[in-house]
Write a structure and sequence with these properties.
By secondary structure, this protein is of the alpha/beta class. About 40% of the residues lie in helices and about 15% in strands. It has 19 helices and 15 strands. The protein has helices at about 15-25, 40-50, 65-75, 85-90, 110-115, 160, 165-170, 190-195, 210-220, 240-250, 270-275, 290-295, 305-315, 335-345, 365-370, 400-415, 420-425, 430-450, 455-465; strands at about 5-10, 30-35, 55, 80-85, 100-105, 130-135, 135-140, 170-175, 180, 205, 225-230, 255-260, 280-285, 320-325, 350-355. The strands form 3 sheets. It has a 7-stranded mixed β-sheet with strand order 2-1-3-4-5-6-7, sandwiched between helices. Strands 8-11-12-13-14-15 form a 6-stranded parallel β-sheet, with helices on both faces. The protein has a two-stranded antiparallel sheet with strand order 9-10. β1, α1 and β2 form a beta-alpha-beta unit. α1 packs across α5 (about 110-115), α14 runs parallel beside α16 and α16 runs parallel beside α18 (about 430-450). It is globular. The mean pLDDT is about 95. The structure holds iron/sulfur cluster. Iron/sulfur cluster (SF4) binds next to loops.
């Protein structure tokens, strides 16, 4: 039996550790999880748990902090450290960090299982793993994608809920009905992941309807779940699967739900069915209200007509919707950025979310920006920040665009404020604008995730350092 401790830095439920933990426990191993932002005396706690392996779930932006933490831990106890998730997959230089023994590329379930099964044997030949040994790095090839996702056990939610009551008591629980996205947006990791997995199996996979329903019903019975959240990149991707799924969901689950979609996939039949089966909120990426930015630069492959049509149908069937928007896109002018507010106003978005584009090195948007001299040639992953703080891209009206991001929510929800916003964005960037932005995020999350007032305050406090 191998003892694995998962470590992450923020209070958030990730499906990855839950899925791996379920598979490891099923095979006789022991798993635990610590969230650094929630812990005091964390080194003592780790010593008490005494794991054989510490598995880090890393988000780009906090990778340096976690690598430093791993180094610190390795000085205190004898343990193997492994880093996984999208960051380790795309930024393999991470293996050179002193505190990192192994990185996992791509899907981690079976690689972690093999690692745990062979902890006292040779661990240098496990597929998907890059392993450091005697100052050398052994790079193993990547295994094909898991063809049948239903062969995996249901995610182990207990790994979060046994320690973190806040997560346990959240009324909304997340589910995945599949993996992969067929689109190729230039700012998203999917097009790069497809290259890593070329000739390694079907990239987009869906689970069996009855298995998803079974998982939801177990959670409905076990925890006080009030709302189901489908976290697939695009829940509405396969119309036939979706309509059949919603029929079964309506009969057996009967809980309100939210999901992510693409505006071009929402037609009358889907909107009607979503409403009938209990869909309360839907979220889709609008990204930019400017057609050139949205389709030529961001490669969203989404027309304004599709966006307006989706919004019309969602209003018709009384389904509230949120949009994801990005400001600070390469070659974006302040007028282009205002187009994004304008389109959201036209479609009357209920929950407008906005971020400042973070061009992840290796993605096509980052390559495009370097080619256009909008990013330095030596631009690297350490230049990224967590989501919303600033933009690295050279922009003509950068100050105004960053400030507009702070007022984005207010511009969409209260368009009569736009003349005032146009004046305010001319002032230097400042902390007050940032606080105003955070208040908008807290309101949007509270309203769209069904949080109570106390939860909203807690969330705002937790977001304070991470946005
Ligand atoms: S549709 Fe969404 S998940 Fe798919 S590639 Fe575009 S941004 Fe990524």
């Amino acid at each position: 039996m191998t003892k694995v401790l998962f470590i992450q830095d923020i209070l958030f439920e990730f499906i990855g550790p839950m899925q791996i933990s379920a598979l490891l426990k099923k095979n006789g191993h022991e798993c635990d999880l610590l969230i650094l932002s929630e812990e005091t005396n964390v080194i003592d706690k780790i010593k008490k748990i005494n794991p054989d392996i510490i598995a880090f779930s890393v988000m780009t932006g906090s990778h340096n902090e976690l690598a430093d933490f791993a180094k610190k831990i390795k000085k205190e106890i004898k343990v193997i450290t492994i880093f996984g998730g999208p960051h380790a997959t795309f930024y393999t230089d991470l293996i050179n960090e002193e505190g990192v023994d192994i990185i996992c590329i791509g899907e981690g379930e079976y690689a972690m299982l093999e690692l745990c099964n062979n902890i006292n044997k040779d661990i240098t030949k496990i597929k998907n793993l890059w392993v450091k040994k005697n100052n050398k790095i052994i790079k193993n090839e990547i295994e094909p994608l898991i063809e049948n996702l239903d062969e995996l056990p249901f995610p182990d939610r207990d790994i979060y809920y046994k320690r973190y009551k806040y997560l346990k008591l959240l009324p909304t629980k997340k589910f995945m009905t599949g993996r992969g996205c067929p689109y190729n947006c230039s700012f998203c990791f999917n097009h790069e992941l497809k290259k890593i997995y070329s000739n390694k199996g079907r990239y987009v996979r869906k689970r069996k309807i009855e298995k998803v329903i079974e998982e939801i019903l177990i959670l409905k019975k076990q925890w006080d779940m009030k709302i189901v959240r489908f976290s697939d990149d695009t829940f509405t991707l396969y119309k036939e699967w979706l309509l059949e799924f919603l029929d079964v969901y309506k009969k057996k689950v009967r809980l309100p739900f939210t999901c992510l979609a693409r505006a071009n996939e929402i037609d009358e039949e889907i909107a009607k069915k979503l409403k009938e089966t209990g869909c309360i909120n839907i979220f889709f990426g609008l990204e930019s209200g400017n057609n050139r930015i949205r389709n030529d630069v961001l490669r969203k492959n989404l027309s304004e007509k599709d966006i307006i049509n989706a919004a019309r149908l969602l209003h018709k069937y009384n389904i509230k919707f949120g949009t994801y928007n990005m400001l600070g896109n390469p070659t974006e002018s302040i007028e282009d950025a205002f187009d994004t507010i304008k389109l959201n106003t036209i479609i009357k978005t209920d929950f407008p979310f906005s971020t400042i584009l973070q061009p992840y090195p290796g993605t096509d948007i980052s390559k495009f920006s370097v080619e256009k001299n909008l990013l330095p040639e030596d631009y690297c992953v350490n230049d990224l920040t967590l989501m919303n703080k600033r933009s690295q891209i050279k922009l003509k009206n950068k100050k105004e665009i960053v400030n507009l991001h702070r007022f984005f929510f207010y511009g969409v929800k209260f368009p009569f404020l736009l003349p005032l916003i146009k004046i305010l964005i001319k002032f230097p960037e400042n902390k007050i604008y940032y606080l105003i932005f955070q208040a908008g995020v807290a309101w949007t999350k509270k309203s769209s995730f069904g949080l109570g007032f106390i939860d909203m305050i807690k969330l705002a406090w937790k977001l304070k350092s991470k946005l």
